[in-house]
Amino acid sequence: YIIVKDKQKANWENIRKQTRQWAKSTFHLVNSELQYSTPRRIIIEHFIPSPSGQQPDDYKIYCINGKPGACMVCVGREKEKHPKFYIMDEQANLLRDWSYDGLNAPADFVFPKPDGWDDMYKYAALLSKPFPLVRCDFYISNGKVYFGELTFTSAAGLDTDFTDKGIYEITKELAL
Question: Which CATH architecture has domain 58-171?
Answer without folding.
Answer: 2-Layer Sandwich (3.30)
